[in-house]
């Protein structure tokens, strides 16, 4: 805290760095002890589709620090292989405006407009496992722009336009495939075409489209297995929209009002009988195709302002954020779109505006693995047993170990472990000496505690302790005494960075190899009260300050234990010191912090692959000097202080889930 050390000079440069010789008395290291309707999502993979490890980075709340800094950071990151649409066996006939659904891992396509611009009744299925097509009985009545869902294990075709002489008229008929034959179900409450349909539970939901006179419909109809009833009207009446279900909600996507293509996305909850407006598509899309796979809604192709699209957008249903996917090889609208497992398929359609020439071409995209995304808010958990700040912490065997710290100005030797899954705390053997402003890491399967101070920060420690067989043992001392340091592990190397001693910054980087410490390249920006995390390859030193809470740093640097060198990365958006950081699924979270007259609830996240920072929901309890650790898919924030300096220790525990 700002009372522990003198402020630096008026120069913009950090204060001078303390250098000390090796410490004596080291003890030798002894060795370590989707779906549309009720679609089935079998894990099928299309023959010829390249598996990709490209990871989607959707779900950020506010994207920060772009431009040159973004480019600089991104160029320092390894790039993964690309993912793209792959051709599959063409459909047996060319058609557009067909209805489609997936059942038992087969994509079924019904009706539509053929290559001669005439309505067709063909019923075909594509099996991704063997990359081949099969046929079923033709529809009793040829239709185009009908809807299809899978209900009680069978494909259902609803409404659409049928031929009436030279005209087309909307239909109210509903057909079901039973034992390979078509049987009629109760008719819709009114004729309807170019609408959207999906299944939630045991109910079929149909909405939008146009009636027999071509007038837009705002009505929603619900079939419960016996009869149709009216649901809540769709807020934005439109036709040529698409729909898919995640089993709870029906998502109505895009469409046109007859003159303008729309970006509108709305979700219907049949249980609550309510509609919710969601973030718009990145661009308007009419006559679009959609599918849900792996908690993502994929919008494919369509029409926009007189152009046929090949672009593809993806909506993360957890974070409610849109991102891009690779373009299709062929621009198309009115195609059949569905998903099997994590593969999305686009079949047929037309590349010409209007009722242009239909195609039989087909392609598939194997979705990149979905990245877990942060929840919309933190959740509160029961307090820790001991209110304290300036602790050391680490994770061992999925338990968070909280070590030492300060309470009411007194250094603590208290050690406790927290099992987040059980929600329980356990006392552990106390430290041999009280320590605050120390660092901890898990090394060789043991809790290791480094540096810190037992009194004030001008007398930093070189001690290193490991908890072995229930007892604390000494390891070789640090070469440089340091408190308010940070530490992390990469492979067989334990790395200590930053800190302060005797009112000076400690800039040396120390690496422990299991036997002894040695110096590596100095940190480019010496600082203390920083955080450090490891991604298994590098150590990332994040933020910190220059001996005073009014001299916070946004520096973000990466250490490579293999080469012993440092690389500067894009600065953290919020300069801060005395806070915590954690690594989760390719990203680094920085949480809390301290300024001279306030503590921070700010949470920010760095995506290592993208080289970008984003803002996360702030902690409910602003604080500094807290422990921040990841267990499973959750980041936990424990203890700290709700006031600047060393006052206001809290036992508060809050968690941010990634889902």
Automatic annotation (TrEMBL):
Highest taxon in the source lineage: Bacteria
Cell membrane keyword on record: no
Entries under InterPro entries matching the protein: Gal_Oxase/kelch_b-propeller, Kelch-typ_b-propeller, Kelch_1
Gene3D superfamilies: Kelch-type beta propeller
GO MF term list: kinase activity
Keywords: Kelch repeat, Kinase, Membrane, Repeat, Transferase, Transmembrane, Transmembrane helix
Chain segments annotated as transmembrane: 40-64
Family annotation (PANTHER family): KELCH REPEAT SUPERFAMILY PROTEIN, OS02G0202900 PROTEIN
Protein name according to UniProt: Protein kinase
Species whose genome carries this gene: Mycobacterium colombiense
